[in-house]
Amino acid sequence: MNSISSNRLTGRVAVVTASTEGIGYGIARRLAQEGAKVMISSRKEENVIKSVQKLTNEGLSVSGQVCDVTNAEHRQSLFKNTKEKFGGIDILVSNAGINPKLGYVLESDESSWDEMFHVNVKCSFLLAKEALPYLRERKGSNIVFVSSIAGLHPYPYIGAYSVSKTALIGLTKAAAKSLVTENIRVNCLAPGIVKTKFSTDVSSNLNQRNSKLNMTSSVGRIPMQRSGTIEEMGAVVAFLVSDDASYITGETIAAGGGIDCRL
Question: Is 161 a known active-site residue?
Answer without folding.
Answer: yes
